[in-house]
Amino acid sequence: MNDSDEGTGHAARSKRADARRNEQTLLDAAAAVFVTSGVEAPVRDIAARAGVGTGTIYRHFPTRADLIIAVYRHQVEACAEAGPALLASSASPHAALRRWINLFVDFLVTKHGLAAVLQSDDAGFDTLHAYFLDRLVPVCAQLLDAAAGSGEIRSDLEAYELMRGVGNLCIGADSDPSYDARRMVELLVAGLGARVSEP
């Protein structure tokens, strides 16, 4: 291989890395806008947050469904990677669990929008739901085990049950402005505390 080939290969790798970073920036911006404004938020709002033109978003994601599905996968991966990182950086396993549940709530806002977008494609939604469970249930279980092991929460909790409970508390938040899903989830997490032995 001559120097010119090596230079071309390096340029191609750099271009791919730049494209991945740009896509991550778009997905981060879209996720933030979806959390505050819903999945029907104008593309121009996402573009403005990402600091790009709307054409850039359409080049990466030709349809709104493409964008929402990409954000969904992006958030699943972010939640999955956040679990171990929060355990390593938080003051306690219970604090890590609380912070992770907050990320999970943000994700659920987008997930509800996804269901509406894919309602005509049950197979596609089922595949994404299975991916979500495969990636996030083990992470939640790791956080629960750590918090239970430190004596901060009760030890008879199942990750899927907790995630399902959080999900149920988030349903309806978009249709009732007076309903504070985050407060309800905070109360649920506070109620996970270790049982006090009867005298």
Automatic annotation (TrEMBL):
InterPro entries: Homeodomain-like_sf, HTH-type_TetR-like_transc_reg, HTH_TetR, Tet_transcr_reg_TetR-rel_C_sf, TetR_SbtR-like_C. Residues 20-79 form the HTH tetR-type domain. Residues 1-20 are annotated as: Disordered. Residues 42-61 bind DNA. Gene3D superfamilies: Tetracycline Repressor, domain 2 (1.10.357.10). Keywords: DNA-binding, Transcription, Transcription regulation. Signal peptide: none annotated. This is TetR/AcrR family transcriptional regulator. It comes from Pseudonocardia alaniniphila.
